[in-house]
Amino acid sequence: MKLSALDYLLCIHCMKPFVLLDGYATAPDSQEVITGKLHCNSCNRDYDVRGGVPRLVDESKSHQTDIETGQSFATAWKTFPRMDERYRQQFFDWISPVDPEFFRDKLVLECGCGKGRHAKIVSECGAKMIFAVDIGDAVEVAYQNTGHLPNVHIIQADIENMPFAPIFDMAFSLGVLHHMNSPVSGFLAMSKKLNDQGTICAWVYGRENNRWLIRFVNPARVAITSKLSPPLLKILAGLMALPVYLWAHLVAAPWTRMQEKMPALPSLFYQRYMTYIARFDFNEIHHIVYDHLSAPVANYVARHYFEDWFSEANLPNPVIRWHNQNSWTGISSHNPQILSDMHKRMEKLLATDAKAAALPSQSSRQ
């Protein structure tokens, strides 16, 4: 924990500042606090700093399902801790039309940080600071991957009980809210940490085009795979990942390239998504499958319901984008100019996509 975090962290019970008690230990040649205690003088509560991370989860305030889900994903991130350079493009695909420049000099909140891959990217984009929170021990992997970065703070906290005032210029959550017991409660809690000019972005599983997952994969996940031991689940996920990897690389991606030359060709099952993940190697696809099979909870969110979240948060007229025809990205802002700019960017992206679909591919013109 960096000492500068004390200027921002608040007690999750009374929203008052902490003091760092004497006797804390720092890393060699560093002001990074590795072990210690944060004390709230207002309500006389103590919270540990352990492994460089403030541990600000009180299980009595959190839903048990969210605690269990956090621990399940912590195991997943510890099983697949690798950082990959391809995450940068994936990140900006998820949050489009937000671009790298948007983060410059902003105070940013990430809700559900996993192994820290997005915090690292935001840090490299010149954010003033990013506070990345996760309810489970995934924070230990995130700290290992990003704790050395001067503008990254890793905090163990529940999204519904975060230790911050409404101070953030930008808050985002990618692939996390739909795993909460109440996704909309998580979104609303996140929105309450924005300042009066703040911007919010969320990416969630869509209900549209995912009926097969809801009907077949979900029941098996709930009844069987989420209850398997991690070693056994890793083996099962590897066996299932192999045909996914082969289909993505040997069928979906080549078929998509053929469609660019012959638009009359029919689309294949789940083609857009399978083509997208063909950019990744087997290790990452193994992780994707493991992720789907391990989660105790997975909610698939319909567009109209997703839009309602923004209305409930008093964040009107969001930019809603269908990502890979199986998930939703939503963006809104309390700043009218930022929101207007996001809508204009989205219109340009849609116009570019429509134009590309109407023209022969570059390769076919050469």
Can you tell me about this structure?
The chain is 42% helix and 18% strand. The chain has 366 residues and is of the alpha/beta class. The chain folds into 3 domains: 1-54, no CATH class; 57-207 and 302-351, Rossmann fold (3-Layer(aba) Sandwich), CATH 3.40.50; 222-294, no CATH class. The strands form 2 sheets. A 7-stranded mixed sheet has the order 8-7-6-9-10-12-11, sandwiched between helices. Strands 1, 2, 3, 4 and 5 form a 5-stranded antiparallel sheet that branches. α1 (64-79) runs antiparallel to α9 and α7 packs across α8. The chain is globular. It starts with 18 loop residues before the first strand and ends with a helix. Residues 358-366 have low confidence and may be disordered.
Helices, strands, pairings?
Layout: E1 19-20, E2 25-26, E3 33-40, E4 45-50, E5 53-54, H1 64-79, H2 87-95, E6 107-111, H3 117-124, E7 129-134, H4 138-146, E8 152-156, E9 168-174, H5 183-191, E10 194-205, H6 211-223, H7 230-261, H8 271-277, H9 282-294, H10 303-312, E11 319-323, E12 327-333, H11 336-358, H12 362-365
Parallel strand pairs: 6-7, 6-9, 7-8, 9-10
Antiparallel strand pairs: 1-3, 2-3, 3-4, 4-5, 10-12, 11-12
